[in-house]
Amino acid sequence: MSTATTIPTDGAAAAAPSPRRRHLWAALFFLLLVPAANYPLVRHLGTHVASNAGDDTFEVLWQLAATARAVFETHTNPFFTPDVFYPHGWYLASGAQPTWYYTLLSPLTAAVGPVAAYNLIVLSTFVVAGFGVYLLGQWLTGRWLAGVIAGCAYILAPFFTVRVGGHAHVLFAMMFLPYALGATLRAMTAPVRAWRWVALGGIALAATILSHWYFLFIATLPLVAAALSVHSTVAWRARLARLAVLGGIALALIAPALLLTQQARGAMFPQGGTFRLSDIEQHGISPDYYLGPNPTHPWMRGLTARFFPVRGEADIAGLGYTVLALAIVGLLATPRRQTRPFVVMALLAFVLSLGATLRWRGERVLVAAPPWLVRLVSPLTRDLVLPAGQLPILLPNVLLYYALPFYSSLRVWARYAAPLQLAVALLAGFGAAWLLSRGRGGTALAILLGALIIFEGWTLPYTAFSDVTLSDRAVNDWLAAQPDGTAIVEYPRPWVDVMAMYSQSLHGQSVVNGYMSFMPDYLAHVNEQLGEWPSKAAIPLYREWGIDYVVVSRMDDDDAFRETIWPAITDIGALCPVATFPDAFRFRDFTGTAVFAVRPFPGAPCPTP
């Protein structure tokens, strides 16, 4: 077997350097693979997105447009906007998206527009991530083709490919995570010149965490597990010192963003900003879904819907059959001390990705329990809604939820699948390296399995592919023509919140609507009063906030809307119809858009638009 018996040190790497030409070929491979696997998006770079209207993509499009406008046009603070969540405004660092990255990328947005910028950003994350796993896999195995196969296993995992549709923050983390792992392992194993790897590891870990604050836990815990379990000739005291310095560098780099986030969350959520365990309990992965087929593969979608129904992002987790087969080969054919850090990393990430309670076949597992056991575990289940005499199978996340500071702000435990996918991809790289050492037949088989990995990860045609311009409603032009400072609220809430926020980037007026993980406290206090549709109860609030117009997305093909909701809206004496438009958001069967002016006080004449 040609693979090393332990993780290489800097000295070993220097003795047998990989030709730069092979690195260039690997980079070119990923630079061609990613556009080929997303060629419809490449052909419509500036007009389409791989998602539906109303998906998270449109939140990112708004953020890209807003930060570029703040930097290049209004010269205002890109981390605050008064025009979303009006009249309170939005401190953007309180959200999930990395607004600091979008600010750094604002020159790209200004040059090509938010749609093209978004598509270029997400596609680039796959290229850079694939190359990062290649570098790590090549260093671990000494075979560049094994690194390429590991990179394909990572970036073609459905857990990542579905993120093209709006989860740019997760893709940023996916991109930086391999570099953080590689630098950390080198920092733990290098007998000399280790401090450069300590510094690079701290920088890469900070970049991963800044991608999405979830990764303060999702990246750090598995990376620490890998670092502590890696085989090394370096003394434990030196290793722990290096790890401490690496963490200190990461903490120093993320400190400004953490402070900004703390201030922003304090402004938006003065009463907390955490999730109840009952609301997030099942946002983990059902373990059998890891063995399911790719639900986005054009040949597997029907099968997946029958046996592995997708109800949310936590149900898209298939590791890939070819990847798993290669990973098993890697485990069997490679010395344990070489694969140990990735096994430990994978096991930790696997357990934490399952959520707070065990699911199977996508459903919570409940078992009958005697009263004494129910009482015994009641401190951990007190926030869960459970049938009498039954308990779920509790998982370690429950303890972390109550014991670890800030852990209760995590909503989707399933995102621990990111480090799991990285560990499994690297184990597959070990398997490919063993095959490559078997001569021409093994090389041919490794190449064939690499091709199968690409085939299994194929997503075309996309399950969702939207022309963004179809959401550029005529009402946006009408609103843009109104005086600066005009304030509106759009209905029905919360269904149009994402698109109403996106539309704000087109018409430039202020909107009550907004979209983020948590509803801001000020809005939560009046959420019931604002209602799903306009009502008389909301009129005092409109006047207090200075709302000029109420915009309603019509649903004339819906009997309940036509016979009940629309008459109730038109009967509100404080709303004056001023404009109607024959187009609407392209989702939820909307057929048109109506605009009502708000009478500034009872008995006032209808305003003239």
Commentary on this structure:
- The protein is of the alpha+beta class.
- The protein folds into 2 domains: 10-352 and 415-456, no CATH class; 472-598, Rossmann fold.
- It contains 28 helices and 13 strands.
- Helix 10 (168-189) packs antiparallel against helix 11.
- Mean pLDDT is 93; it is low at 1-5 and 10-17.
In short:
This protein is 55% helix and 7% strand. It is of the alpha+beta class and 609 residues long.
Number of separate strands? 13
Helix content: 40-55%
State the separation between the terminal residues, measured CA to CA: 79 Å
Structural class: alpha+beta
The dominant shape is globular
Beta fraction of the residues? 5-15%
Rg over CA atoms, rounded to whole Å, is 26 Å
Average of per-residue pLDDT values: 93
* Poorly predicted regions: 1-5, 10-17
How large is the count of helical segments? 28
User: Largest beta sheet: what is the strand line-up?
Assistant: 10-9-11-13-12
Biggest pleated-sheet summary: 5 strands, mixed
Domain module count: 2
